[in-house]
Amino acid sequence: MTPDLPLSRLAAFARRQSVAPKPLTGIGGTVSDVSRSAIAVRGLSRDARLGDAVAIHAQGSQCLAEIIRVADAQVLVKP
């Protein structure tokens, strides 16, 4: 059994994509607060897991971040 570590999950994802590639899908949320250390996002709590990657789109650019906290109303992400 493979441990549920981020690198193991990424390797499993890569294997699945090489066998039967599927388009990546996304669930949208809204940035509700920004601090020096984290960004609060509403609308993702129901489907988010700790450690998931998110893409933040703003002004024609994209920033990748990791979910570091999941609460009922929002998630916190760290770029």
TrEMBL record:
<protein>
    <submittedName>
        <fullName>Flagellum-specific ATP synthase FliI</fullName>
    </submittedName>
</protein>
